[in-house]
Sequence to fold (101 residues):
Amino acid sequence: MALQRSAVRSRLAPPESAKKSEEKMIVTFGKIIAYIGLFITIVGLIFGFGIMFQDTNDELAKLFFMIIPFGFVLFFTGMSTVVLFSPRESELGNRSDLSKK
Fold:
């Protein structure tokens, strides 16, 4: 009976290499989302304050200020994804050369 259960589990579980490549893809996606969020936040700050100090179009300045929280949420989501799915030191093994650099 135990042999049958382990055979069923082995058929249902993906191989380790597929799991690691999927985690790398998720980490890469998280980095991309974080960079996009950072870009949106910086653009919103620069253009929002720039337009506001020129006294030309306050509505446009408000629009740029309103995209800043959206950029921050994207940045935070990307960083959280990277932290959650990056490999830990315990998963990397005993690599003493990493700690020396």
